[in-house]
Amino acid sequence: MAARAGVSLATASRVLNESDRKVGQEHRERVLRAARELDYRTDLSAQAMARGMAPVLALLVSSIDDPYFSAIAEGVAQSAHAHGVIVTIAVTARDSEWELASLRLIRGQRPRAILVSGSRVSHSPHADALLAELRGFTDSGGRAIFLSQPVGGLGAVHPANTSGARELGVAIANLGYRRAAVITGSESLLTVAERTEGLRQGLASLGGEIAMVESDTFDRLGGYRSMRRLIESGRIADADVLCAGNDFMAVGAMTALRDSGIEPGRDIAVTGFNDIATAADVTPQLTTVRFPLAEIGRRAADLALDGTALPTEDISVPGEVILRASCPPRRG
After folding, report:
1. Are 134 and 203 members of one domain?
2. Are residues 179 and 274 in the same domain?
3. Pfam families in the record, alphabetically (predicted)?
4. Residue 326: which of 251, 264, 272 has the closest Cα?
5. 272 φ, ψ to 5°?
6. Under DSSP, is residue 177 helix (H, G, I), strand (E, B) or coil?
7. 266 with 145, same domain?
8. How far apart are CA 162 and CA 76, in angstroms?
9. Are residues 280 and 166 in the same domain?
10. Residue 329 falls within a domain, yes or no?
11. Which domain holds residue 299?
């Protein structure tokens, strides 16, 4: 490689390994041209051994079929590309033990930074071990950022769930709705607790209330099953609006409503949360709380990869209520 470019071994190494030591533009271009001609590929494992870390950003997500996480991953990938690193993704299936095991494997790859998405879990038996792993990683020079509730003084970039849900509660109460049926994920998920409490506060400010809460998995199937239980038990008749913990659950719930001859947006109002792309494509279009998910992913990756940024910063990103046809003004 060095001979092909007509430079010293040290110069070729500095260019190919992106050393902090400066190399003249002419020599740099010669080395890169030689690398292309020889189809040279950087050995990331060797680079990690030499530097102590590889040009890799690791992202832990709960699911890959949930558009919430794919939107965040898009923003992470944009930032990673700009910083000259690649992204590796581990799926944790909202299982804290699986999340911990994935983190331990990822640390063995010596990434430059780790992003942990997905709601934190109250009273998780693996929370202390997870935090210890992340602190060990940061103590060795890596950077760790949560894409959820911050833990243990580490940095975080996350949706402002409570205030967003509060604003949604106020908005639907202003439309005339007073009794909400909530379908959502496990109450152990802090995201679920934040959104449910915010919604309760918003409704209560105008005399409304949460009439019932039905929990299941925090996905489309969970939304469908929760809705079926409310319909079959007859409890749904006590509500005038159905509030899903996320848009994915709302889509499943709307299918269950139609399967029972109940028309969403006409017979009962429906709301979601997050404003995934599907929310504007379903019929009727879904009322929801919009968060800039790709922007959240990009900001978290920027925080992790920018060596000058404060890695303990806690950034809460506000949402915006989007009123659509699934939640029209209440008649009568």
Report:
1. no
2. yes
3. LacI, Peripla_BP_3
4. 264
5. -125, -155
6. coil
7. no
8. 24
9. yes
10. no
11. 50-159+293-317
**Neighbour count for residue 48 (Cβ, 10 Å):** 18
The helix (run of H) or strand (run of E) holding residue 245 is: none
Q: What pLDDT digit, counting tens, does each position of 98-118 carry?
A: 999 999 999 999 999 999 999
- The answer to whether residue 323 sits within a structural domain is no
33 lies in the same domain as 121: no
Tell me the H-state helices in 140-263: 161-174, 190-204, 220-233, 247-259
What does the alpha-carbon distance between residue 137 and residue 310 come to, in Å, rounded to a whole number? 16
Q: Are residues 206 and 255 in the same domain?
A: yes
The percentage of residues in the chain with a pLDDT greater than 90, rounded to a whole number, is 80
In a domain, 79, yes or no: yes
Rounded to two decimals, the pTM is: 0.83
Same domain, 222 and 123: no
| Structure token digits, residue 219 | 């996905």
How far is residue 185's CA from residue 195's CA, in Å, rounded to a whole number?
11
Q: Which one, of 99, 158, 160, lies nearest residue 127 by Cα?
A: 99
Q: What is the pLDDT of residues 222-264, one digit of tens each?
A: 999 999 999 999 999 999 999 999 999 999 999 999 999 999 9
Q: Which residues contact 144 (CB under 8 A, 6 or more apart)?
A: 113, 114, 115, 116, 134, 137, 138, 154, 155, 304, 311
pLDDT band at residue 48 under the 50/70/90 scheme: very low
Q: What is the C-alpha to C-alpha distance for residues 327 and 332, in angstroms, rounded to an integer?
A: 15
Q: Does 34 share its domain with 155?
A: no
**Cβ atoms 89, 73 nearer than 8 A:** yes
Joined tokens for residue 325: 């046809």
